[in-house]
Amino acid sequence: MSPRPGFVLEVDRSTPPTLFHHGEGFRLERLPVGSRIVYPPEALPVLDDIDGAIRHALLHPVDNDPLPALLHPGMRLTIAFDDISLPLPPMRRPDVRQRVIEAVLDLAAEAGVDDVHLIAALALHRRMTEAELRHAVGDRVYDAFAPRGLLYNFDAEDPDNLAFLGETESGEEVEISKRAAESDLLVYVNINLVAMDGGHKSTATGLASYRSLRHHHNVRTMQHSRSFMDQHRSELHSSNWRMGDVIRRAGVKIFQIETTLNNDTFPKPFDFLQKREWEWSLRDRASYLGAAKALERAPARLARSVFQSVLAPHNLTGINAGEVEAVHRLTTAKVYEQQLVEVEGQADILTMGLPYICPYNVNSVMNPILVMCLGLGYFFNLYRNRPLVREGGVLIMSHPTRWEFHPVHHPSYIDFFEELLAETTDPLELEKTYEQSFAEDEWYRHLYRTSYAYHGVHPFYMWYWGAHALQHLGSVIVVGGDARAVRRLGFKPATTLADALEMAGDVVGPDPTLTHFHNPPIMIADVV
Amino acid sequence: MKALRLERSLPRLALARAAGALRPGGGARAGALRLVDMEPPALPGAGWVQVRPRLAGICGSDLATVDATASPWFEPVISFPFVPGHEIVGELDDGRRVVVEPVLGCDARAIRPRCPACEQGDLGRCRNIAFGHLRPGLQTGYCADTGGGWSLALAAHESQLHPVPGTMTDEAAVMVEPAACAIRGALRTGAGPADVVAVVGAGTLGLVVVAALDRWVRPARILVGAKHPVQRRLARELGATDVVEPPALVRAVRRATGSLAVGGGGGQGEAHGVAGVRLTGGADVVVDCVGSATSLAQALAVARPGGRIVMVGMPGTVTVDLTPLWQREVELVGAYAYGTEEHPGRRTFDLAFELAAEADLGRLVSAAYPLARSTDALAHAADAGSRGATKIVFDLRAEKGRDRL
C-alpha cells in the first residue's frame, strides 16, 4: 500500500485528544471543535538497494561527468559532509554519510587518489566529538583518516586556512575553507532534512566563515525569506546562490551529493508519536501512557538522556549527485514529495508542540533560545506561499522552556539570554548593538576552536531565524514553560492550553480559527 | 519625647540576633530596640544645638545594629543606650532646615589640637571618636550623648550642620548623607575614563555610587549587578552602562573586558556564581556595595590582576578566599563616611548636595513610616529591593509632641 498523503482534519466532538510534543514529554490536548489539525504524510518507502543507489548516483550524475572521470592520481580531493545538526534525530548506523563517503573513497582509491581530506562542514556550529564523527562517517573511515589529521572539523576562525574568493554582485564576501577552495575536486555529502538544506548552501554556508555568513545570516535576510523553506521566495536561498556563483567562477569544482530521508522518525516504543491518534492501537495507548507517566516522574536529566539516545529508523528515499543546482532541483522535489501538505487558508491561532530536539542541541540541552528558534524559526517557517497563521495572529507553543543551558556547547547563549534579552528582544537592535562584540569575542572564539562550543555569534542567528515570525505574529504564548524564561524571551506563559486560548482571544478576538501543526514528523504546509 | 532607643540588654541582643538571622530586620520586633518616651538629649556644650529630625533614613548598618549582627569591632566606639539614625534632615529652632553630617570628630568633641585627619578635613578618619567630652560614638546615631535621627530631637554640633537649600525637598536632603558615603566610594576607585568599573549590589549605596561614578569619574563602562527590577531600572537611569542580575556579573565583566575565562566552562552553576570561573582579566575597579562574603568573593572574581576593590558596604565578619587578592595583586580598600575629597578638592557633603539635586536622589525614597511602626519600617527596609523599594525613612514631621520641643 502506498503511503497516505498528509491531510487536514477538522476537529469534531468525536475527535480524540491531540498529541502535543512537550520537550522530553507529551501532552494530550482537546482542541476546540472546528479547529483544524494538519497531519504530515506517511513515510515514503526506503530505497531497496541503498548502496546500489549510491553507486548509481556517483556513476550517473546529473549535468556532470561521472565521479570516476573526475578522479585521477596526484589530485587533491576534499570530501565535506553535513555536521551533527543533520539528520534529526540522528539516524541508526550506518549513517547515510558513511555509506556515501565509503563509496566515494572506494572510487578515489580505484583512481589512485591519495591526497584526500574529509571535513565536517559545521560553519559556526560546535565541533563534533570523536564519537559523533565516528557515528557519521563510520569507524573504518574515521580510523583511516582522523589519526593522520585528514578527517577534521572545519574551523571558521582559522585565518590561515580560509580562502577569500571574491564578492557577489550584491557585495557579499565569499570566504570558505582554503582546502576546499584549492582542491581539484570538492565532493559535498549532504542530508536534506528540510527544503532549506542543500544546494549552494552546503558549501557557501557549511564551509564559510563569519565574514561570509553575516551577509545572509542577518535580520533583513530572514525577514525577506517568506519562507526560507521556499527557495523561490527565500532571500537566504538567493544569497547562497549568488555566493555559489562566486565559488563556481573562482574555479572551485563541486560534485554535489544530496540525499533525502523518509520521515520515519521514531523507533519503538515511541513510534506512536507519528501516528494519527484515532489509529492508535491498544499497544500504542499503553506505550503512550507508560512513556508519559515515566517521563513525568523522571528527573529532567534522565528524560533528556533517554530521548537524546534515540536513533531514528529513517532512511534513504533518494540520492542525486552531480552539478549543484541540477541536483538540488531533484532533491527539493523529493523533499516536497515527503513533506508537503496542502492547507486552505490561514488561521487566527497556530498551535504546535515542540519536541526535545532541534538542529543545535543534539546530545545537548534545548535552551530557551533554541525553543524560540525551533518554534518561530523552523516550525513557523515550514510553509509555502503563506504562513499557517494570519498576520497579527497568535502562535501557541507547548514546551517546558527551562532556564537551562549546556555550559560547554552554548556559552555565548547564556550571555545572550541573561544579558541581552534582559535589555531587548528586538532582532534589529540586537544585531546593531551587540552582534559584532559577540562575534569577535576572544573567549567565545577560543571555545569554538578548541572546545565544543557554538560560535559566539550563533545565538544571534537563532534569534534572527525567528525574526520573520516576530514581525508577523501578534503574540506568542508558551504553554507549560518556565514563566520567567518565557517572559525573558518576550513571550507570554500559560499553564494550560485553555488558558492560552483565552489569552489569545484578547489578541485575535472571539471565536478565532485555529490550526494545529501536528508533528513529528516534519512537514511543509502549502497554504493556498 | 518619643524615640526608638537601642539598649544594651544581652538577652534582647541575643533575641535580636536570632530573629535577624531568620529574617533581616526581624531584630526590631524581638530585640533591644524599643519605642520609648525619653527626655531630649542635653546639649553637651557650647556650639551644640537641638535639631528636630524631619526625615531619618534606615541604612544597612542600622539594620545590622538592630539585628545585632554588626561587627564587634564597633563596640568600643559606640555607647549605650543610643538612638539610631544618622541619615538626617531636620530643622533648627528658627525653622531652618539642616542635614546633619553625623561623624563625631574632634570639633564636636572639643578636642584640641585636632587629630591630623580632622586637621585635613578628613572627618571619617578621626582618631578621637571615643574621646573628649562625649561618650564614645563614631557618629550621631551611635552615641549615648547626642541622640539620633529616629527620634523627635537630637543634639548636634554646629560643625555638623549643613543648611538645606530652599529648593531641595526633604526627600532629597535625607539622601545627602548616603550620597556622601557613595561619593567617597566612587572617588576612592581612582578610576579614569578608560576604565571598566563593576558595582556589586544596587541598593541605595550601589545606586548612588553609580550616580557618583557617572557624575565625577565617567569611566568607559559601569557594570552593575542588580538583583531586583526596580534596582535595574534605577541603575540604568543613574548612569550604568550595563545592568545584569548578580549571578551574571562575572560573565558581563568578562565580555566587557574582552577577558578569557578558565575553569568551569562558563556554565550554569559555575559562571552564575563565582565558583569554577577564573577570568584572565577583569574590571579595573570593583565597588562592593553589599559587604557580604558572597559580594566580596564576586568582587575578587571580577577584579583584574592589579585592579582595585573598594568596599563601600559595611562588611562585618566575612569568610572569603583571599587567594585571588594575593595571586592577582588586587588592592582592597575601604570607603567609610566622608571628609574632604582630594579630587575635586571639596567637602564630600558639598558634593553630595550637588548630586542629590542633580540626580534627583529624592526619588529613591520609597516609603516613610512613623516611629510607632518601626517594625514595619525596618522589615520594609530589609526587603526593600524585593518590595520594589530603595530607601525607607522615618517621617517625624507629623509626630505628636514634636512642636512642643
Give a verbal description of the structure.
The complex is a heterodimer of chains A (528) and B (405). Chain A is an alpha/beta fold and 528 residues long. Helices cover 38% and strands 21% of the residues of chain A. The two termini of chain A are 28 Å apart. In chain A, 58% of the residues are buried. The model of chain A has no long low-confidence stretch (mean pLDDT 96). Chain B has 405 residues and is of the alpha/beta class. Chain B folds into two domains: 2-164 and 370-404, Quinone Oxidoreductase, Chain A, domain 1, CATH 3.90.180.10; 179-341, 3-Layer(aba) Sandwich (Rossmann fold), CATH 3.40.50. Helices cover 28% and strands 21% of the residues of chain B. Chain B has 13 helices and 19 strands. Chain B has helices at 10-22, 27-30, 60-66, 116-119, 170-174, 176-188, 204-217, 229-238, 249-257, 293-302, 323-327, 348-358, 374-382, and strands at residues 2-6, 33-37, 48-57, 88-91, 97-100, 154-157, 161-163, 196-200, 221-225, 242-244, 261-262, 278-279, 283-288, 303-311, 331-334, 340-341, 346-347, 365-369, 391-395. In chain B, strands 3, 4, 5, 6, 7, 18 and 19 form a seven-stranded mixed beta sheet that branches. Chain B has a six-stranded parallel beta sheet with strand order 10-9-8-13-14-15, with helices on both faces. The longest helix of chain B has 14 residues, at 204-217. Chain B is globular. Mean pLDDT of chain B is 93; it is low at 265-274. The A-B interface holds A 404-408, 411, 414-415, 418-419, 422, 437-438, 441-443, 446-447, 451 and B 232, 242-245, 247-248, 251-252, 254-255, 258-261, 264-271.
Unreliable stretches covering 5 or more consecutive residues of chain B: 265-274
How many strands, which pairing sense, and closed or not: the largest β-sheet of chain A? 9 strands, mixed
Global outline of chain B:
globular
Gyration radius of chain B (Cα, Å) is 21 Å
Give the oligomeric state: heterodimer
